[in-house]
């Protein structure tokens, strides 16, 4: 009989979820299963997970709490990497996790550092779930990280890096350590790699690629106008996922370039644990290393290969 921690992962086919799944499987210290909706079972991305020998548990998040409790039986750690438009669907899952005796719930955080309310709509909605967790006294860990390397570099005139969709192996490697660390129970943890300015990123990209990249610099006024336009558009139809996405993006940009929230010092101000201090032996991939691999064709393609 296996003595490994049994982990259930929701959202395993998304960019963050795939990295988490890879990190969990890499350690070989977990019995990993994946939670999928009935409508997703036959999708190629889910079949790829099955082909890796990962068992599935099938349930709709809109199911009753009782049904979800049954689905969660025997699970020790529940990790949610649900998509941004479905964050609030975790409410019933949180209650079911409490009833099922889940030892630790990892809600869908995996976002940049920002104030808990009033700056980013997506963060506001995540905090609703965090508060539900705390109301029920369900053991948890919130894990946030900086900007992904692969959304930090610009396109090249040659198009050589356009094939990259996601490339986030460090996320899963961090998660696999954090979820079994007693120091992180009921804590917020911040993971990070490089801290680079936009000019430093452009210098690395141009040096390694040998190509000249056109700057995409926008003024503060332009970013504020973009944010105002996105929010005004969403107010006309708050349920439109496309308009919500534009607000998410505009708020990320404003938080990053104007407020400059996403920094270790700000995470420390909010009381986060620093994963780099918790695991000093862990060496994240640097931006330079990653971009070198991307130029060599080793990044991830749309089909996940």
Automatic annotation (TrEMBL):
Keyword Translocase annotated: no
NADP found in the keyword field: yes
Residue ranges constituting the NmrA-like domain according to the UniProt record: 3-143
One Pfam family this sequence matches: NmrA
Protein keywords: NADP, Oxidoreductase
GO molecular function: oxidoreductase activity
InterPro entries linked to this entry: NAD(P)-bd_dom_sf, NmrA-like, NmrA/Isoflavone_reductase-like
PANTHER family attached to this UniProt entry: NMRA-LIKE DOMAIN-CONTAINING PROTEIN-RELATED (PTHR47706:SF9), NMRA-LIKE FAMILY PROTEIN (PTHR47706)
Name under which the protein is recorded: NmrA-like domain-containing protein
Species: Aspergillus pseudotamarii
């Amino acid at each position: 009989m296996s003595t490994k921690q049994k982990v259930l992962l929701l959202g395993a086919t998304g960019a963050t979820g795939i990295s988490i799944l890879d990190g969990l499987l890499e350690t070989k210290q977990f019995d990993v299963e994946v939670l999928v909706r009935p409508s997703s079972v036959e999708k190629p991305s889910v079949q790829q997970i099955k082909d890796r020998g990962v068992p599935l548990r099938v349930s709709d998040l809109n199911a009753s709490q009782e049904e979800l409790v049954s689905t969660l039986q025997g699970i020790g750690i529940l990790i949610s990497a649900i998509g941004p438009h479905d964050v609030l669907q975790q409410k019933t899952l949180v209650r079911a996790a409490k009833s099922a005796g889940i030892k630790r719930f990892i809600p869908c955080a995996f976002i940049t550092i920002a104030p808990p309310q009033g700056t980013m709509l997506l963060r506001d909605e995540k905090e609703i779930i965090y508060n539900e967790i705390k109301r029920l006294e369900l053991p948890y860990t919130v894990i946030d990280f900086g900007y992904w390397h692969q959304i930090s570099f610009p396109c090249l005139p040659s198009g050589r890096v356009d094939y990259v969709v996601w490339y986030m192996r460090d996320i899963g490697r961090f998660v696999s350590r954090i979820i079994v660390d007693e120091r992180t129970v009921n804590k917020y943890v911040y993971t990070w790699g490089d801290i680079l300015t936009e000019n430093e990123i452009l210098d690395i990209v141009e040096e390694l690629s040998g190509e000249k990249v056109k700057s995409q610099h926008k003024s503060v006024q332009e970013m504020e106008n973009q944010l105002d336009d996105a929010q005004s558009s969403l107010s006309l139809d708050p349920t439109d996922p496309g308009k919500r996405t534009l607000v998410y993006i505009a708020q990320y940009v404003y938080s990053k370039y104007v407020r400059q929230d996403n920094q270790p010092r700000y995470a420390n101000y909010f009381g986060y644990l620093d994963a780099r201090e918790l695991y000093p032996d862990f060496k994240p991939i640097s931006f330079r290393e990653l971009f070198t691999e991307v130029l060599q064709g080793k990044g991830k393609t749309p089909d996940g290969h």
